[in-house]
Each structure stands twice: as structure tokens, then as C-alpha cells.
Design goal:
12% strand; six-stranded mixed sheet; three-stranded antiparallel sheet; alpha+beta; Cytochrome p450; 14 helices; binds protoporphyrin IX containing FE
């Protein structure tokens, strides 16, 4: 490709880097380019500026959800409602919303609080924990089982599937692990759905039973539609929440002033959480170009993939004052960590409430902690690999 800026920086994987370094590279690339062609995998465009990214999110007639993974333009799977465009998209999204509304979410919080406290209590006297394997991988998986009225003992299975999927996303070329993880998850849900059909449950209180009754135009969802929705809920809720929690804890372990502020005044937690979501964004969505277009000078062709680089948008100095600086009370803070369109994260209320409870309960019990001496924190793209914390 000539006359266009090209780069070759793996925005989803590559080698683990010291924590935070990934965002420095993303910042440098935004300073260099408004857009560029990334030569990773089959190649894709990258938009780097906040305003362009919001515009692309809000123009589905050009930027389609047919694929949302920049290196996978023709996915073999169909996550619902993610991989659909208007007008059909809302028909798949609407049945989820009552389970993920702010009011519904408040009903799940006693479970989250109880489990967060039990996990912390399980390691508090040892004075040390590897935060991901000891906490952040476990709590979201337990919450998912609760949301779907599945036995909490199945959380370990969901955690394992999410880990196998992440392993593959971050190490290009090992597709078989992800395919196997998706296959295992789909087989699991196939049995659950069959069981729900054999022994119907009340759709007013059982999420999966309500999906079996959801309607698209004049018919009910078929099993594939139910399964593709359950896949999205699983893969969309585990790695994401885990990583946001991990960045928050890494930041607080390494910034004593911010940690002390949060301990002294827990009412700052909702605002601090928004700032962690802004400054350490953990997903960047892809879109597939529907027709040839000159998008602010970028010569996109029908079928090209584009990354709407949310990592970069959230740290754009045109929109955020001093964006590399973490300000727990930043206001306004219109980040795009959850996207910006009718596909905007359906689970955002749940993710926020869960992480808020974690920050409250952790700091109530362990107000002073640090990175364990001699350990190094590395991240593969936007995902921390491990976070060893100590306290006395
Ligand atoms: C902090 C954690 C999370 C982050 C950063 C996050 C991020 C995102 C983003 C950026 C999208 C937009 C996709 C697009 O534009 O195509 C999305 C969609 C979605 N998320 Fe989340 N998510 C999180 C947690 C969750 C949780 C906990 C759930 C549910 C239990 C969830 C369920 C969904 C669903 C169902 C969609 C598809 C929405 C649609 O296509 O209409 N997410 N998420």
C-alpha cells in the first residue's frame, strides 16, 4: 500500500510489555497519525481520534458490525446482538435490557458483595495474593452464573473458557485454543437450553427462560439465537471486568496519594472508576466497511476492516485535559470505554456496580497494600498478565 501511513503494532496481543507501556505507544501513534493502516494479521485501518471514532460508531450504514474483530473480517461465529446492524440489532438487544438495567443490577449486588468479601477473607491473613487468579477471574464468573441462574460451582468452567479464549486472542496463530473454548461453551449452553426446554422455568425470574420466550417479529428465538446471545454475555462479561479491576488495583497499588484519597473518601469511587475506565481502556471494537468511502482522508474500500481505537480515543488531548494524568475526580469524563452507539455495552451498569463493590470492600479490609517486592507487572496489550499484591 502506498501513500498511506502504515504501522505494525499489535493492538490486541504481541509480547507482554511493562504495565502501562502499551498506552504510551497508543498515545504516540495518535500523536503521529489521525488514521493509519496496521499491518497486523490481514491488515486493517486504525482510527485514532475521539471525534472520528464517535462518528464511525454512529454511522452503521458505513461501519458495520458484521465483524467486530479487526483481524477476523469473516467470523465463523455470530455473537448476538453484537454482530448485527440496524434495524434487526434492536430486536436481539431488547430482550437483554431488563436483566441489565440499573434496577435489576442493584438486585445482584448482595451476591457480589458477599462473594467479594468471602474471596478477600480467604486470603487476607496470608498478606499476599495474585489478584487475577485469586480474585478478578473468579468474581465475574460467579456473577455470570448468578445472572443466568446456573449453579455457582460452574463458575470455574466459565473462568477456564475465558482464559483459553484470551490466550489465543493475545497469541496470534493459535486459533485452535479459542475455537475449542468456544465449542466447549456452546456445548455447555446447548445442554442448558435443552434442559430449560424439558423443564421450563419462570421467564420472569430466569434469564435463559426469558430468552427462550423472546420474539423476533412474529416468531420466538430459535435455539441458535439463544445460544449466540449466551455466548456474547459470557465472553463479553468476564475478561473485560477482570481487566478493569486489575488496572484499578495496579494504579492504586502504585499511586499512594490516590489510594489514600479513595480510602479516606469512598464517595470518590464512582468517579475514580470512570477515570480507570477512561485511562486504561481494555477493548477496541472493529467494524467492517460497507462501501468505498473517503473518511476524513482515509481511503477505505468496501470489505476493509477498521479498528475504532477506543484505547486511543479515551486519551485524546483534544477532548481530555492532560489525558495521561489520572484524576480521580475528573469531570466531565465522556469516555468511550463502553462504546458509543446503539451497540453501547449492554452490561455497563452491571460492570460498574460490580467494580464499585470490589473497590469498596477491598479498601475497607485492606487499605494499605503494594506490589509484592521483586515482582514485575506486565500487560499483553490492554490486559494485565498478573498482579502480585502484598500487605501486612
Ligand atoms: C468493564 C467491563 C466491560 C467493558 C469495558 C465492555 C465493553 C463493551 C463494548 C465496548 C461494547 C460495544 C461493542 C460494539 O460497539 O460493537 C460492549 C458490548 C456488549 N457488552 Fe460489554 N463490556 C463490559 C462488561 C460487560 C458485562 C458485565 C456484560 C454483561 C453481563 C456485557 C455485555 C455486553 C453485551 C451484551 C454487548 C453487546 C451490545 C450490543 O451489541 O448491542 N459487557 N461491551
Amino acid at each position: 500500500m502506498t501513500d498511506v501511513a502504515t504501522e505494525a503494532f499489535d493492538l490486541n496481543g504481541g509480547e507482554p510489555l511493562p504495565a502501562g507501556h502499551f498506552y504510551d505507544v497508543v498515545d504516540d501513534l495518535r500523536d503521529k497519525h489521525r488514521w493509519y493502516w496496521n499491518q497486523c494479521g490481514p491488515g486493517y485501518w486504525v482510527l485514532t481520534r475521539y471525534q472520528d471514532i464517535r462518528e464511525a460508531f454512529q454511522t452503521p450504514e458505513i461501519f458495520s458490525n458484521e465483524s467486530i474483530v479487526p483481524v477476523d473480517p469473516d467470523p465463523a461465529y455470530r455473537f448476538l446482538p453484537s454482530l448485527t446492524d440496524p434495524p434487526v440489532h434492536m430486536k436481539y438487544r431488547t430482550p437483554l435490557l431488563r436483566w441489565l438495567s440499573p434496577k435489576a443490577v442493584q438486585g445482584y449486588m448482595p451476591f457480589v458483595r458477599e462473594n467479594a468479601v468471602a474471596l478477600i477473607d480467604s486470603f487476607i491473613t496470608s498478606g499476599r495474593v495474585e489478584f487475577l487468579s485469586g480474585f478478578a477471574e473468579i468474581l465475574p464468573a460467579r456473577l455470570l452464573t448468578f445472572l443466568l441462574s446456573l449453579p455457582v460451582s460452574e463458575a470455574e468452567f466459565f473462568r477456564d473458557c475465558a482464559l483459553r479464549l484470551r490466550d489465543t486472542v493475545s497469541r496470534a496463530g493459535e486459533q485452535s485454543t479459542a475455537v475449542a473454548a468456544m465449542g466447549d461453551l456452546k456445548s455447555y449452553f446447548t445442554e442448558v437450553v435443552a434442559d430449560r426446554r424439558r423443564s421450563p422455568r419462570d421467564p420472569a425470574t430466569d434469564f435463559i427462560a426469558s430468552l427462550l420466550e423472546a420474539r423476533i417479529d412474529d416468531r420466538a428465538f430459535d435455539d441458535e439465537e439463544v445460544l449466540d446471545t449466551l455466548m456474547t454475555l459470557s465472553f463479553g462479561s468476564l475478561d473485560t471486568t477482570k481487566s478493569v479491576m486489575s488496572w484499578a488495583m495496579w494504579h492504586l497499588a502504585t499511586h499512594q496519594d490516590d489510594r489514600e484519597w479513595l480510602v479516606r473518601d469512598p464517595s470518590i469511587i464512582p468517579s475514580a472508576l470512570e477515570e480507570f475506565l477512561r485511562a486504561y481502556p481494555i477493548v477496541s471494537m472493529g467494524r467492517k466497511v460497507k462501501r468505498d468511502v473517503d473518511f476524513h482522508g482515509c481511503p477505505m474500500k468496501k470489505g476493509d476492516m477498521v479498528m475504532l481505537n477506543q484505547y486511543s480515543a479515551n486519551r485524546d488531548p483534544e477532548v481530555f485535559d492532560d489525558p495521561r494524568q489520572i484524576k480521580l475526580d475528573r469531570s466531565p469524563n465522556r469516555h468511550v470505554a463502553f462504546g458509543s452507539s446503539e451497540h453501547r455495552c449492554a452490561g455497563s451498569h452491571l460492570a460498574r456496580a460490580e467494580i464499585q463493590v470490589v473497590l469498596e470492600e477491598w479498601h475497607r479490609r485492606i487499605p494499605v497494600y503494594r506490589l509484592t517486592e521483586g515482582t514485575e507487572v506486565r500487560a499483553t496489550a490492554s490486559h494485565i498478565e498478573s498482579l502480585d499484591l502484598s500487605w501486612s
